[in-house]
Amino acid sequence: MRSTGSYVTSSTLGESVQAFVPHALPPRGPELATESFAALNHAAELALARLSGVAGLVPSVDWLLYSAIRKEALLTSQIEGTQATLTDLFDGEAGFAVSNTEDVEEVTNYLRAFKLVQENLRSPGGLPISVRLLCEAHRLLLDGARGAGKQPGELRRSQNWIGGTRPGTAAFVPPPPEHVAGLLADLERFVHHEPSPQSVLPALVKIALVHAQFETIHPFLDGNGRIGRLLIAALLEHWALLPEPLMYVSGYLKQHQSEYYRRLSAVREGGDWEGWVAFFLAGVEAAATQAERGIVGIASLVAADRRRLLASPKAGPASYRLFEMLPMMPRFTVERARQSLDTSFPTANAAVQVLEGLGIVAELTGQKKNRSYSYQRYIELLAL
Is 134 inside any structural domain? Predict the structure, then answer.
């Protein structure tokens, strides 16, 4: 059994607790047994390569990114207990009334944080993956949402704990606040360090290590899980494993949520880094394979609907243009269609009627005025 950290006494809410301070990465004493998951790593890398290749099936990769990033935002937030659905998110973007506005706001904040990180990584003058960038993302994540009072954008200055109603009954107590900045600096060095050729770890393995270490440090008062999973997507791009964020690994982690937490605990309690890495690699392969199937399904649906539209004698330029917008505007009103098409209301309404007549979109309200529409089969495919 390897040691992955040490315990120090910390006080919070009048109780003394044993807080865990992890050792810096990579694992040592013994070093990581990479041969134990070499086959899993190869399978995960192949699945990512297939996913990258299949993205060429659709005319616009923006379609895929629109849905993939929203699924990741939704699923990572659901792990933390939000009840928002994909339809709620699309309705919020369309300006429709949604009942759980706070949950939708949390998901929308994740999208903003994700966009900030991606823009920095892609800009020559942007921030690299760093503590500063994660703090900027955290500020957006908690902006105006339920965690707004929990030091958005700042490393915690007090002891936190995970599980249990009070510190003394916690399932896990992360490092005391005075250790957090130093531990994150070590983690940042691990991300950017160029090791000797004989000690190079596969990039996916490094992502698994970084995610577990971040979750163990738990540097914020709230939002640690979401920032930790956003870091996975950022590192996939940083190490050129995916050209675009087409995969939503949070779906796998949500589906196997109890094992996700158990594997992280086993690292801290028993030094089982190999078990965690194997679980993570299996998750990457499953998530990439599911995303690949989803892309094929979406490409097939959109191609079939496009053929029906092109064969219709009633179709015209406005209905063609509106159809091409649907994958990034799956819920809409005629007014929103008018704005997007930059045309008159009667022209936009006629284009919507063509799509409704072909069964491509469906009207939702049953009203004569203020009608709302949905590209329903597309949404149902995304929700699988």
Answer: yes
